[in-house]
Amino acid sequence: MALQSDSSAQREEEFREVFRNVYLTGFSMRVLLVTIFQVIIGLVLSAVLLCFVVFYALVLLFVIFGFDLYPPLDIKSMIKDLPTSTGGIIEGILGTLVGLALFAYLGPHTLIRFKRRLAARLYVLAGRPLASVEGHPTFEPSSESGYNGIEIGEFYFDFEDCLLDVKGGDLEEWERAGGVMRMWYIPREMRSGKNPRTGRLVKYNCIPLRAEWRPAALYGET
Questions:
Q1: Across the beta sheet with 137-141, what order do the strands follow?
Q2: Would you say 181 and 135 are in contact if contact means Cβ atoms under 8 Å apart?
Q3: For the domain 129-215, what is the CATH code?
Q4: Phi first, then psi: what are they for 168, rounded to 5°?
Q5: Taking a C-beta distance cutoff of 8 angstroms, is the pair 28, 22 a contact?
Q6: What is the b/e burial string over 161-187, where b = at least 16 CB atoms within 10 angstroms of the residue's CB?
Q7: pTM
Q8: Dihedral angle over CA of 9, 21, 192, 196, nearest 10
Q9: Tens of pLDDT along 128-173?
Q10: d(Cα 178, Cα 137) in Å, to the nearest integer?
């Protein structure tokens, strides 16, 4: 029994921490400034989105019911130069939808992400329980550079809510070296779905806190 306990303790020591999610731990002036900037941008673009939605609603009221707000607005004058052909109308609708989607992503979506990170940080500061998963990691490369996330066992962790305290090249070295990774995460808002890259059913939407790694060379793993 003592031998088994010593072996287990040694196995624990073989893992070393390799990165943390700076959004949730410690203090960084960079994170503070980025967060303040994101909140300002989110509020401004959310207000712009709201103005656009109200304007297009007024345009629809005028087109359908002839309702105009004059004064202070003169909807009829504002839309008199808009194209009336079928092709022009379709292009206008598509352009409007794309614009609204962009503002929605940069505005409300940014604020939702801020709220999610803040709630996760408060969760950690309160000392509430964390969960972990251990296994061989599958790194998901980004279409531009770096990585989008890591899949471990039946869990997928994306990096959208992460600011890792490592260089991008470190993740590449661990992927080449192989080994086992243990990911600690906040077990909230968990969902299940297919990872588009691997097609596997995974649990996702858990914000990772930190990762520990054990090189494959320790056990001759491949």
A1: 137-141, 147-152, 155-158, 201-204, 191-194
A2: yes
A3: 2.40.50
A4: -60, -35
A5: yes
A6: bbbbeeeeeebeebeeeebbbbbbbbe
A7: 0.74
A8: -110
A9: 999 999 999 999 888 776 788 999 989 999 998 888 888 868 888 8
A10: 8
